[in-house]
């Protein structure tokens, strides 16, 4: 329902598959007539209230109309949480990001301190932050058996919960459900975590993965190949899953594509390097699909089997690509375009890592020179 550029969603309590919703109506399905009737009742109520506004000379305010024609439990004990549940499915974000929002909802329900609109205060946000910081991380089974206490979740993880909640509250302000976002008074109050730290593989470490030989046809072989694919394309997991060779064209024997990132919709430039083409040829140019969580679990296991001290993750492959390109002289603006970053500032942390690496090399050489006789 939209009036004067202000939109409101009304939850009908119905679930309909996308392919059965055609031009604003439900296509043929069991019980469709009753569903149509319910939707039409809501529409008729809205139109009647709009007509009343016109007849009485009152302004057409979508929030007021919604309150009069649809009792959504504004006074109930879970009004805010219920509203959030209706927002997440219609947000223009990737499915992966929606999972983050659903995790936030699970945490809010678990905590129980924010349920109604009146709960949305700066004090409650502070209390939620404190509660989040007490949550333990997932443990290895061996640590559980040994009675080792799990560490608390990181500042960066807590920050991601705040980021999702803040976005929902911004939407609530936009839709006149909330007068002001309590986060507006909390700028700079919460620690975002060490976002400058970037873990990546050296060329030698990446080579160990490239040349390892799991059992042919095994899942671990697929995991190795997917990691190599990411490390030489800079693709995030979602972009890798959406990869389609038909989006590419050959220019002088090189596969090239200008596309958009799945997560952000930001344009990026992709060119398939020889190691990537080699991986694709093993699968007839069509990458196998694997669950993201399962993929990261197997990556960690593979790193341990190969004796790597770093915890392998899907995103580490992306970091490895960025640092590798900068090390070989690529301009930071070009690396930003390769990664599909929204701005160059996101890419600059990789440049800082390279600067630190250079300083470390200088330090090592200086120490060697000091050890030489007569130095």
Low-confidence region ranges:
none
Task: Give the overall form.
Answer: globular
State the end-to-end CA separation: 79 Å
> Mind telling me the CATH superfamily name of the largest domain?
Intergrase catalytic core
**DSSP strand (E) fraction?**
5-15%
Q: How many domain modules?
A: 3
In CATH, the architecture of the largest domain is: Orthogonal Bundle
What is CATH's topology name of the largest domain? Answer: hpI Integrase, Chain A
Outline the biggest β-sheet: 3 strands, antiparallel
Main structural class: mainly alpha
Give an overview of the whole structure.
- The protein has 375 residues and is mainly alpha-helical.
- It has three domains: 1-70, no CATH class; 74-194; 203-369, Intergrase catalytic core (hpI Integrase, Chain A, Orthogonal Bundle).
- The protein has helices at residues 32-56, 62-69, 79-87, 95-111, 122-132, 141-145, 155-174, 203-210, 219-231, 237-241, 274-282, 292-305, 314-327, 332-339, 344-371, and strands spanning 2-3, 6-7, 21-22, 25-26, 249-251, 254-260, 267-271.
- The strands form three sheets. A three-stranded antiparallel sheet has the order 5-6-7.
- The protein starts with a strand and ends with a helix.
Which terms would index this structure?
375 residues; mainly alpha; hpI Integrase, Chain A; three-stranded antiparallel β-sheet; two-stranded antiparallel sheet; 15 helices; 52% helix; globular
